Amino acid sequence: MPVHRFAPMRGRVVHVDIDSQVLRDNLLGDPHLRAVAVYLPPEYDAGAGDFPLYVDLVGFTGSGVSHINWKPFEENVPRRLERLVAEGKMGPVVVAFPDCFTSLGGNQYINSLAMGRWEDFLIDEMLPRLEGEFRLRPGREHRAVFGKSSGGYGAIVHGLSRADAWGAVASHSGDMAFDLVYFCDFPKTLNLLAKHKGHIPAFLASLEQKAKMDNDDVHALMELAMAATYDPDPSAFKGIRMPVDLETCEIIPERWARWLAHDPVRMIDRPECQENLRRLKGIYIDCGVKDQYHLHFGARAFTRKLKALGIAHRYEEFDDNHSGVDYRMDESLPYLYRALTASGA
Q: Residue 232 — φ and ψ, nearest 5°?
């Protein structure tokens, strides 16, 4: 019988608290006690063996719990999965939704002196905890990581650098080609900082006093979060230093080079990253052709290099922008299942 997309969830969600050692003493002063919501499909309680594990990395300003919340006129991730299973497009999986939100508004899911050691949290702390508490098929071959936007960036970067932990990855509209993604927002960010005489602590304090942040505020906050992620300065407030001159907006080459070292379009040129990608059982990438952050250009550049290297992958473009594209998981989630279960990706 078909499952209506607004049908009640048949599985259940449990919560695991992780007292992280690797997130202690981060420069943001953010909590090191982190919650992970874990979706268990209805087959889990029926005693149907063990299950592959998916890990969902959300976009900037998001938290893992947002993907298990009720949504009007849309499916959350558990309901989407249950429909896809009922339609015969994939089998049941366990999904982890970690809370990786930070006080700078988001996360790129890599290790940072300022933001915290998020890669280590996910791989060295969360994965062993989940495998110890739930009936999961053990090992990298049975794990997939997926996400959109910053989460898509996290997924593809983990594929580039941590194939020892993951068997397959899916990136929806992930951050790539940093020159196009971030550079255009530097002047706007500096204009907002100028209202506070370029003083980053004063700007952040002003956001805390606002009843509502506008779009420019969020984008400026995102640029500061990226600075604390890609090129943190332990001596600076919250580790934030910009890669441009705060008066002229001219690039500071050595700082910008440290940002670019984290760009997937640059990372893929490294032999060790290529080897990691070859080890994966599946690589899924997609992006809307109207993406307002120009991410389709980075996705094209990245997948062109994948093709030139002969690395198997699936790439799709679709007629939409960056917002409200969770429906694309109808493509990626079954793809990841086929990859992990080796029935053809």
A: -70, 145
Taking the CA of residue 39 as centre, how many other CA atoms within 13 Å lie in the half-sphere pointing to its CB? Answer: 29
Going by the DSSP 8-state scheme, the letter that residue 4 receives in this structure is P
Q: Which residues contact 270 (CB under 8 A, 6 or more apart)?
A: none
Q: What is the pTM of this model?
A: 0.96
Mean pLDDT (the chain) is 96
Best CA proximity match to 268, nearest among 259, 277, 260: 277
23 near 30, Cβ under 8 Å?
A: yes
**Residue of 30, 208, 19, 209 whose CA lies nearest to 103:** 30
Q: What share of the chain is helix, strand, coil (3-state, %, to 5)?
A: 40, 15, 40
Which domains does the chain carry? 12-176+265-340 (3.40.50.1820), 180-260 (no CATH)
Report residue 66 as tokens: 């947002």
Structure tokens belonging to residue 278: 């070859």
The model's pLDDT over 134-192, given as tens digits with 9 standing for 90+, comes to: 999 999 999 999 999 999 999 999 999 999 999 999 999 999 999 999 999 999 999 99
Separation CA 161–CA 118 (nearest Å): 14
CA 250 to chain centre: 29
Concatenating the DSSP letter of every residue in 53-64 gives EEEEE--TT--G
- Token pair in block for residue 28: 């943001």
Strands 282-288 and 314-318 turn out to be: parallel
pLDDT digits (tens, 9 = 90+) for 312-338: 999 999 999 999 999 999 999 999 999
| Segments of the chain scoring below 50 in pLDDT | 344-345
Residue 216 · residue 192 · CB < 8 Å: yes
